[in-house]
Amino acid sequence: MSTAGEAIQDHDHDHEHHDHKATGVTRWLFTTNHKDIGSLYLWFSFIMFLVGGAMAMVIRAELFQPGLQLVDPHFFNQMTTVHGLIMVFGAVMPAFTGLANWMIPMMIGAPDMALPRMNNWSFWILPFAFAILLGSLFMEGGGPAFGWTFYAPLSTTYSSDSTALFVFSVHIMGISSIMGAINVIVTIMNMRAPGMSYMKMPLFVWTWFITAFLLIAVMPVLAGAVTMVLTDKYFGTSFFDAAGGGDPVMFQHIFWFFGHPEVYIMILPSFGIISAIIPAFTRKPLFGYASMVYATAAIAVLSFLVWAHHMFTTGMPVFAELFFMYCTMLIAVPTGVKIFNWVATMWRGSMTFETPMLFALAFVILFTIGGFSGLMLAITPVDFQYHDTYFVVAHFHYVLVTGAIFSIMAAAYYWLPKWTGNMYDETLAKWHFWLSLISVNVLFFPMHFAGLAGMPRRIPDYALQFADINQIVSIGGFAFGLTQLMFLWIVIKCCRGGEKALAKPWDGAEGLEWTVPSPAPYHTFETPPEIK
Amino acid sequence: MAEQQQKYYVPASSPWPIVGAIGLGLIAFGAGHAVIDMSKEQSGFGMNVLFAGIAVILVMLFGWFRDQINESMQGLYSDQLGNSYRQGMSWFIFSEVMFFAAFFGALFYARVIAVEWLGGASNNAMTNEVLWPDFSAMWPLTETPGGTTTQAMGWAGLPLYNTILLVLSSVTCHFAHVGLEKNKRGQLKVMLGITIVLGLIFLYLQGAEYVHAYNDLGLKLDSGVYGNTFYMLTGFHGMHVTLGTIMLIVMFLRVLKGHFTPESHFAFQATSWYWHFVDVVWVCLFFVVYVF
């Protein structure tokens, strides 16, 4: 196991005779090992990323020209819906859970996650959930076509017969997330090595800790929302039906009470990743560690007070619109603290630009663009203009693709040497980065203009004046999609071999994960390491 | 933290999680199809798959807990793992609280905002005038804007008895726990037994209340948002009481077999927390759904 090793502390010699891992398929089915489960999560999320990406390609192909060319509108709606659901619940969230599984025990000096069998369960229910969701696309009447936000009455009165399958698959995704989050919380609270106090934890651990609290607070609310959709559609209740004394607006309140913290669930772990990578390639400690922790917590708290900014056009009393507008803008403060700290970390650092750092830098700049368009959307009277246009699509793709996804790719390149024991192909990786960077901006930047000019989202056809912009966007989309196949190839190549990685392949990297050999032994810390 | 120099214990790999995943997958797939079949009034494979899934889950629970109990009785578990279990259980209960919060939130919104607005409150006079001119806001909503009528469920009688029963069961559950901690096995058995009996009586009375509501009051799941929130809240609570009672019965059987010591009784503690949690939910529910 120990291929190359410098700076290996004496507590982790001689792992070989403890490494009794099962062989064959049962290793993956029965495993309680956080590294195996982390790998399963990461591969699963990658597959889902490609499946959801293929749906995005269908969308962009249809929108390449005005008029209806390739697919009928109902199928187009299913593609936008399932693309969103898969990317949120199937790609981004499992990727972060995979990273948490791999890295948190190593970062805090623990042997494994606190509840390893539940860990395995929480992974293995995911493939079933997505099989059910994808399977519903092939049923009579089609799959979910109401947008990933499944607003009532689209999801109740006007939805296809298969909606029950959507509901139950979301239930399973929720159960999986809740179990995963409980595991993260318990691991961090209970499994830290002696001396690893809370304020010594790496920021990736901190941000995931806070994310996990968001998860256990809001995933059950999502479960409640889908349950009410189920009973409204099939059992005659009228939670979202005015004739029975309910209100479709209530759906939006319940959904976004989940939905807005969910947005931060998909970005806080990114902040942790970027806070690990920038110091490593700047060869300076992170600027303002404590303020990063407090800023993360502040964002998490505020995330519960801003949900109705998704509903400015739905109709609310004026004081409510003002309240949600100001709370939303307040989030820019802790986020600004973070951006400032990253930039201050780089100030006068001796920087090098390996691929993880390139992705991290792109993250800082492009996520900030997404944040600024978010601020624009936060202004209530302006939002009346932007709501449900491509401006919104541009905004959330900047925070989710160039934010969350770029940070996941940065994390993958940063830790691949630790996971596989091999260096990835730096030349190919740089190609992957630059092609992604250019294509993603060709893809999403013009969407701002389409939206400001009034192009509505989620519509398979558009007015002629948007044709040029949409062609550019689609070309960017195809290029970005194809480029990700390159990432797949780089990862496979790295798993199969390559230049052997040192225990600490990055000069400036800090943390316990770099004190063990590469690849990390199957059981990392059987006895707790000493933290200075 | 600092004194944990003992070797970490990592549980061995286990087939039960994947069995549980298959079971849960079958339940979701089966329940989805069962609901769809039901709505189309056709018979299909949904129900069968659902029951197969439940059977698999039962096998999984039995096997997983059997392994767990055996390992625990062999003294394999460290204090640290015990802490992990306790913390895990408490955060699980927190997530359950949030699940109920969604339905309490729906009740609050319907009652304070939706129904009032439909009745013309705030700046919604035209909503009432144009859409539902015959509707005036009220709670309990015994006549919906669409015209469905029902009768309200009072709080005196069965609901009040049930509240007393459940609060009492929380007290007996606590004294069972005290008995265990002081190693008074007699007190433990008697108090735990009483708790189970109170739980069963609660469930019986809740069933009787449903029959009364359905047959005498015409209060049904589909009689507007009052009936919706009434049945969803009491129904999910009832499911949790059922689960809690089953857990208590398992604990009782384990106590009879001589399991648990004053120092080590995580399963009992978790069950007792869960039971207190369903009681607290009921007390909130009693006031919000029935009394006010």
Automatic annotation (TrEMBL), chain A:
It is a multi-pass membrane protein. It catalyses: 4 Fe(II)-[cytochrome c] + O2 + 8 H(+)(in) = 4 Fe(III)-[cytochrome c] + 2 H2O + 4 H(+)(out). The chain crosses the membrane at residues 40-61, 81-102, 123-146, 166-191, 203-230, 263-281, 293-312, 318-337, 358-379, 391-416, 428-449, 469-492. It is an enzyme of class 7 (translocase). Keywords: Cell membrane, Copper, Electron transport, Heme, Iron, Membrane, Metal-binding, Respiratory chain, Translocase, Transmembrane, Transmembrane helix, Transport. Pathway: Energy metabolism; oxidative phosphorylation. Signal peptide: none annotated. GO terms for biological process: electron transport coupled proton transport; oxidative phosphorylation; respiratory electron transport chain. Pfam families: COX1. Belongs to the heme-copper respiratory oxidase family. Cytochrome c oxidase is the component of the respiratory chain that catalyzes the reduction of oxygen to water. Subunits 1-3 form the functional core of the enzyme complex. CO I is the catalytic subunit of the enzyme. Electrons originating in cytochrome c are transferred via the copper A center of subunit 2 and heme A of subunit 1 to the bimetallic center formed by heme A3 and copper B. This is Cytochrome c oxidase subunit 1. It comes from Pseudidiomarina planktonica.
From TrEMBL, chain B:
It is found in: Cell membrane; Membrane. Its EC number is 7.1.1.9. GO terms for molecular function: cytochrome-c oxidase activity. The chain crosses the membrane at residues 16-36, 48-65, 91-110, 190-210, 230-253, 273-291. Keywords: Membrane, Translocase, Transmembrane, Transmembrane helix. It comes from the Bacteria. It holds the Pfam family COX3. Residues 4-292 form the Heme-copper oxidase subunit III family profile domain. GO terms for cellular component: plasma membrane. The keyword Lipoprotein does not apply. It is a multi-pass membrane protein. GO terms for biological process: aerobic electron transport chain. PANTHER family: CYTOCHROME C OXIDASE SUBUNIT 3 (PTHR11403:SF7), CYTOCHROME C OXIDASE SUBUNIT III (PTHR11403). Belongs to the cytochrome c oxidase subunit 3 family. This is cytochrome-c oxidase. It comes from Pseudidiomarina planktonica. The lineage of its organism: Bacteria, Pseudomonadati, Pseudomonadota, Gammaproteobacteria, Alteromonadales.
